[in-house]
Amino acid sequence: MQKFLNDKLMPALYKFAQYKVLIGIRDGLTIIIPFTIIGSIFLILGNFPVQAWLDFVAPYSRFFDSVANVTFNSLGLIAAIGIGYNMAIQYHVEPISNTALTVISFLLAGELEDGTINIDNFSAAGMFTAILMAIFVTFTFKFFIDKKIVIKLPDGVPPAVANSFVSLIPGAAIIGTVWLIRIVFNVDINNCISLLFSPLVTGYASLPGFIIFIIVYSLLWMVGIHGDLMLEGICTPISLALFAENAAALSAGQPIPNVMSDPLVPIFVNIGGTGGTLALAFMMMRSKSKRYKELGKLSILPGLFNINEPVIFGFPIVMNPVMAIPFLLNGLVLGVGTYLLMQFNIIGRACIEVPWTTPSVLGAFLCTNANIPATVWAICELVISYFIYLPFFKQQEKVELESERNGAEAVSEN
Q1: Residue pair 367/351 in contact by the 8 Å Cβ criterion
Q2: What is the rounded CA–CA span in Å between residue 205 and residue 289?
Q3: Which among 144, 272, 289, 293 has most CB atoms closer than 10 A?
Q4: 125: Cβ–Cβ under 8 A, 6 or more apart, which residues?
């Protein structure tokens, strides 16, 4: 089994993790994060669930809603900028030109029959269009550059002018292709892309799809691969789009529609980091083992902010078949429990973006717009995590204490 992991599985997974398209999408989507947080702050200010506050801000609600509306309704456009730029970095084409062509293609793909631009596609609903336009633009741009089908000016011409002419022919080909598809042949690119990705959205947002997601990224971590980053390029566009729908519903005073959303996993499943290892860090702090006690002291502060690499690689969780069981089980129990509680409206659903480093209990309070049952559930999750890890930790602690005793005896004899 170890030989299969080292020789077959891990090289394949590492190769997949380094796939440039996924890296470009993942890095490009990070540009969205500060805007969702800023929009969420204004959303909280305009909708904080205390009646006295709501009465006070009622005359000024449009001032708060304006920022939230602009940020959440621009996520698709911002994604086109970020992904277009980062795809250019990955494939070594001129980034500003590639970004500009991605944005123009994105806008043209959303043009209506009357010649106006459909601004509805600027929101998270257009995110998949932004991704595919960035991929199409980058690959086409690179093809023309590699084949030297460009206008090359003399060396004395300023670089900015030279770069603009280099992008002229590939830009004409890119824009012309999108124009033919959308305007001449009247193909609604956004609708086609939405239909194409609808099974993926439906699958990931369902409980079976969510379970598969938790299993896959947990297994990746167990072999030393950052599972969250591996799946970000695939799942983040979906979770952001669902989150934007939730935020819009909150702003409109409507019921929150989606269980799955961007803050769900980092706040309610990864308590202390992937695998919910904050409880394990607390156990190590009280361990009889000197190594575990020191590791617990080092791990507890990062763990409070959902950073658990010291636990995963120091305990270790990686390549540890004993700890693989609670690591996977904890993610499944917390994930499925949270999903079902939100599905049946026992706890509030996530509708406000918070940084993934927000401590879980505070994050649960904030991201559900101060929902008390959700906050209580986050506290319960810590207790559940503790009892899931406890028997396995005791077994590992026993082995570690024996190892420390043997080491001490060997030093004494020498």
Answers
A1: yes
A2: 42
A3: 272
A4: 76, 190, 194, 241, 244
Q: How far apart are CA 302 and CA 379, in angstroms?
A: 18
pTM confidence score: 0.78
Buried-exposed string 286-321: b where 16+ CB fall within 10 A, e elsewhere: ebebebbeebbebbbebbbbbebebbbebbebbeee
Q: What is the pLDDT of residues 212-221, one digit of tens each?
A: 999 988 887 8
Q: Identify the DSSP state of 256.
A: P
Residues 263/247, Cβ–Cβ less than 8 Å: no
- C-alpha span between 39 and 69 (Å, rounded): 8
Per residue in 55-87, pLDDT (tens digit) is: 888 888 888 888 888 988 898 899 999 999 999
Q: Which of 192-196, 313-317, 340-344 has the highest mean pLDDT?
A: 340-344
Q: What is the DSSP letter of 272?
A: T
Show Cβ contacts of residue 204 under 8 Å, excluding neighbours closer than 6 positions: 210, 213, 235, 238, 239, 260
- The pLDDT score that the predictor gives to residue 51 is 81
The ranges assigned to domains in the chain are 20-199, 263-413
Q: What backbone torsions phi and psi does residue 111 show, to the nearest 5 degrees?
A: -70, 140
